[in-house]
Each structure stands twice: as C-alpha cells, then as structure tokens.
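ok trying again, last paste got cut off:
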Amino acid sequence: MVDTLPPGLRQRSAFLFLQGLLLAALILVSTGPFAAEKPYAPASLPGAVVVTAEEVVELTLSRPELVIIDSRKKTEYSKGHIEGAVNLLNTAMRREDMEAICADKTRPIVFYCNGVRCLRSSDALRKARGWGYRNTVWFRGGWKEWTDKRLPVIAD
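nice, full thing came through this time. structure:
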C-alpha cells in the first residue's frame, strides 16, 4: 500500500496512535490486576482510644451520653448503621456540624466508617480533635467488623 499522507499528517497520526496506546495501557494498569489496593487506616491515631466492636457495645450500654459518628456516605448509612449513630460524611464535616451534634467537647464520641481499608473515620476524628474534642474513640474495624460479628444493624 502506498502512503499518500503528507509527512506532517503522517507524524500527527502516529503521535495520536501512540498517545491512545499509552492511555489504554494506563487504564489497564490502574483498573486491572495491577491496580494498587486501597490503603490501610493507621493502627492508631494521636489522642484517640482504638476499640473493637464488642467495646463499642459496652460503651453504648455503659455511657448513655455517648455520641456515635458514622463517617460513611449517606447511601451506605441508609443501608445499615449502628443504632444511634449520626451520619456525618468526613468530607462534608464542618465544625458547626459537630457542635450541633455534640456541643460538649468532653463528651465521648465514637467514630467509624467501612473498616480498616477506609480512611473516612480517621479523617473525621482528626478534624474533631483539631476543633477541641478530646474524648475521642476510634472504632477502626468499623462497619466490616460490626457486620462480620453479626451485631445489631439499623437500616433506614
């Protein structure tokens, strides 16, 4: 086959082909078996007490003033949450929201999200600590641990 394209157009065509090939390779690597897994939440957070699902149950029974913050998306919260939990997405969380839920900064507050592969609750807890909340509890195992242990679930 005789190439009838002018040299400038031929170079542009080759460039676009290579660009498309590179884009396809990047998509494959970022979504396929080569994709990086979600990061793990840290093992601990400064100033927070890390608890298990059983300890959350104990806290809810022994501390009626306990506040529980579910840092997951509204759709996740609606499908199921810990009884009494208030949904407050970490990325939308503002100081005014926390103060409306819990004006007393010495009151115990439990933060949780989807589990050890979710960073929402650790982010929310850090924000709350930055706003002066000091009695912070982190349920690091979160929703996954809660449901794995078949503990009570409330759905909207």
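cool. Residues 91 and 120 are 8 Å apart (CA to CA). Residues 1-36 form one domain.
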